[in-house]
């Protein structure tokens, strides 16, 4: 399973690799990282999206934010699962994420056991 993590904070790469190390080692999960919404959209346009079941995206990023990216992804690639991640449990962001078609809304700190369960049960 391929997971694209979209977050402008580079240290998220180490965190996700540590949290998913068992699944990576067992070839259950492949993680790819994009450090902006624009980078993620370029990556999606160049890939066969049938092989990308899930995107984990931060909401607050410079440039295009995660909600704007979500709207584009769900319009262009409606079958992709997109989980929105945020440090701020904001009702407006939640309602916008739901309106744009988010498959999950996760607040930080991320409970990785629950996240893995959601991902692996897709």
UniProtKB/TrEMBL annotation:
InterPro entries per UniProt: Bact_response_regulator (IPR050595), CheY-like_superfamily (IPR011006), Sig_transdc_resp-reg_receiver (IPR001789)
PROSITE patterns in the cross-refs: RESPONSE_REGULATORY (PS50110)
Gene Ontology molecular function terms on file: DNA binding
SMART domains cross-referenced by the UniProt entry: REC
Modification 4-aspartylphosphate occurs at: 58
Domain of life: Bacteria
Annotated keywords: DNA-binding, Phosphoprotein, Plasmid
Domain named Response regulatory: residues: 2-122
GO BP annotations, alphabetical order: phosphorelay signal transduction system
Coiled-coil region list: none
Name by which UniProt lists this protein: DNA-binding response regulator, OmpR family, containings REC and winged-helix
Organism: Nostoc flagelliforme CCNUN1
């Amino acid at each position: 399973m391929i997971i694209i993590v979209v977050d402008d904070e580079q240290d998220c790469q180490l965190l996700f690799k540590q949290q998913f190390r068992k699944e990576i080692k067992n070839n259950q999960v492949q993680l790819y990282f994009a450090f902006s919404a624009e980078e993620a959209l370029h990556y999606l346009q160049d890939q066969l999206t049938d092989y990308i079941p899930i995107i984990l995206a931060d909401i607050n990023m410079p440039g295009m934010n995660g909600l704007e990216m979500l709207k584009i992804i769900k319009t262009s690639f409606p079958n992709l699962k997109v989980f929105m991640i945020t440090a701020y449990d904001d009702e407006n962001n939640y309602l916008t994420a739901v309106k744009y078609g988010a498959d999950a809304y996760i607040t930080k700190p991320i409970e990785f056991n629950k996240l893995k369960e959601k991902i692996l049960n897709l």
